[in-house]
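[SOLVED] Need 3D model of a two-part complex

Original post:
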Amino acid sequence: MAEKLTRQSEDFSRWYNEVVQRADLAEHAPVRGSMIIKPYGYSLWERMQAFLDGMFKETGHVNAYFPLLIPESFLRKEAEHVEGFAPEVAVVTHAGGKQLEEPYVLRPTSETIIWDTFRNWIQSYRDLPLLINQWANVIRWEMRPRLFLRTTEFLWQEGHTAHATPEEAHEETIRMLDVYARFAEEEMAIPVIKGLKTDSEKFAGAVRTFCIEAMMGDRKALQSGTSHDLGQNFAKAFDVKYLSAEGKEEYVWATSWGVSTRLVGALVMAHGDDQGLVLPPRLAPIQVVVVPIYRGDEERAAVLEVCDQLGKDLAAASVRFHVDDRDQFRPGWKFNEWELKGVPVRIELGPRDLAVGEARVALRHNGEKQQEKLEGLAGRLPALLDATQKGLFDKALAFREEHTHTVDSYDEFKERLESEGGFYRCHWDGSAETEEKVKNDVKATIRCLPLDEEDEPGKCMVSGEPSERRVIFAKAY
Amino acid sequence: MAEKLTRQSEDFSRWYNEVVQRADLAEHAPVRGSMIIKPYGYSLWERMQAFLDGMFKETGHVNAYFPLLIPESFLRKEAEHVEGFAPEVAVVTHAGGKQLEEPYVLRPTSETIIWDTFRNWIQSYRDLPLLINQWANVIRWEMRPRLFLRTTEFLWQEGHTAHATPEEAHEETIRMLDVYARFAEEEMAIPVIKGLKTDSEKFAGAVRTFCIEAMMGDRKALQSGTSHDLGQNFAKAFDVKYLSAEGKEEYVWATSWGVSTRLVGALVMAHGDDQGLVLPPRLAPIQVVVVPIYRGDEERAAVLEVCDQLGKDLAAASVRFHVDDRDQFRPGWKFNEWELKGVPVRIELGPRDLAVGEARVALRHNGEKQQEKLEGLAGRLPALLDATQKGLFDKALAFREEHTHTVDSYDEFKERLESEGGFYRCHWDGSAETEEKVKNDVKATIRCLPLDEEDEPGKCMVSGEPSERRVIFAKAY
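Solution:
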């Protein structure tokens, strides 16, 4: 804690790496591109999992588990899929002391092995919809790894569903996109834009890919979750048919959707500041840290007794708290540490506070500090945490709005993107060529065609060709 | 459901494979030795995870995540460890389209990568104890795979802890053994024997391995969990030292402990019968199934209305229930299916029951059926489920006791083991030679030196050499 964090404005990327490591979220592993998720970081993921898993079950999904190892030939059955994933796979060629007859790839995603299985699970319309989710690790060989954002191995969930009609599959795609958006906004306090990916950005094997896009603290976009309408691509590749109520044999319709440990990175970059992490109360492993202040044994005993009682009251109020009674560190050092770790609320308790029956309460997300009556304090904390959660979301939303620009001139777009970053609502002619040109010119991509963007006829800022509505351009992770 | 299950007495192993697959727990994957865990089987594992994770946290452990891929050189750092695991590992030689400079093995267990990490996490006595758990998949190339019992890939948890003294490490080893025993007995309703493994059966790299052993329905033993005292073996191999309070640099002391999806196999084999699974209420995904009985639409409507109300009452009583209102199957067919799936309680509701305000309640574990007043039925279910849980445990305990024999003659041991199976409490001289001889003679192993076995001087049944107390011999999975 001795050395200060790099400031965000100085080097955001370096700030990110420092925060992730100093706040004990994760560290680099002695395995290329892999990370070790430390207990503090893992507990964030655990809480995310619990919320998401509950939402998946509420929407009728059940969990299952499919093999990590996939026969190499499976990957080749869907043409776009293999093209997209083949360059990233890791291959097992030897096992049990022998060379394998057919190599296995480590799953980069599980469509192939799951659709091979669905062929046996689906016979009639009564077997549909089939709504499966899997919590698993996946491996994609990363050339430019970054902790949480792009790692060779990451943890995720992947939903895989089968439906009788394209309408039902589409509904499911949107239902799960909504689940992701609600999770991001309500639990992570991160506002997101729901939208459709352009063809060049869609999942390898999908008909359409929907996504949620969030703005990070450096005004770049982070794709935070995707939901794919797979059409009949995988059903045809793996010959999965069902007998309809009318007795006709039909290929089934598919979706898949996933979010990963990348969300931990989103949390860091969306809310963090120059002091470190800023965690939303609903996900924070520790919501309230109590720091006793004292000199000498007598004061120590008096203060710790009150801290103990406060701890009991916080536990009774279902607040996740920690009393930092370590003797070897001074209060100021502890303040810094818990700020670095993003704990939403800090309560300081010293002899002068005790004398007047008060405590000092500091909020992490806006730096506000005030004296509070000790009496009933624990009972007021849940409401304070709710207000903090909301405050954090509002702050992130205001930030995104401040840095979202409606621009019609390509020159203005290029200039502002370079100088101030942010999201740009612009007209686009719908062509891959224009998309590619922008990418080459300024490294910005079309993040999505927002679902709630209103019709507004206009002209493409690059080509001048007609456009029906605006799309979002931004630099992205 | 058309074909009857193979009877246990006819071919237990075939019965097991049929039950696991027909009850929708798991199926073979198109990947050698791997399985697909189906939703019904996975929900058992999920419930096990939830209970165990809670117990780990109550005992002060936190979760973290370490890489699947381990540099091959790590495995070689602990001599016994590599000897034990090298023959079973799968090796990644290519990734991202290139041959790797150093191959990676897929973790067969994570001591090496974790102790390589602990070197950086541990500096002083203040960093100890370090109490880490990981939920993960592991890969061990299996020559004779069996669903859940031995699969190339399996899911498990592995605890890895570091301590300042050998006494603390030993305490931890026993604490987690106790957690496993309590989980097996309280949640799985399976009585277990806690004991010490002989040197020939201990974990590769451990000083001592403790285990819990359970008796299956064919009277064979299944090792259901292990807890290892690793001494300083891994600390020395990975150079993990700490500075004591007295300022001395010392190697730390280690433990590791794990249970896996093998426990699902234990559940099947410990309680199952000729009709299929028998699940303990505390783990059953569905605790109560309600089967409506009717002919024609009028009866159907009347019966389903009562079923609906019963469902609401069961939900209010926190009972996990399912109303099987499928039209395409007859009640008898449904009874068989839910018996196969091991649902603890079945409630049958037909017009004649309704007329007298009653329902028929059938218990899976002992086949008892009786008429029950509908009024207040849902409210009485939790107590009935508790009684069922206890009844199942008592039944398993009585079965184990009936098939545990105290024998002093090697001829009697051999003869009875072959003819009736079971556990044998016998004297053993403590030598690996005797152990090996018994294994070669009758394929039985020393399951453990039970911790609660009393001192009883005697003579080894094989060599006649002195023995201090009895050990457990049995055939095992």
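Edit: DSSP finds 14 helices and 25 strands in chain A.
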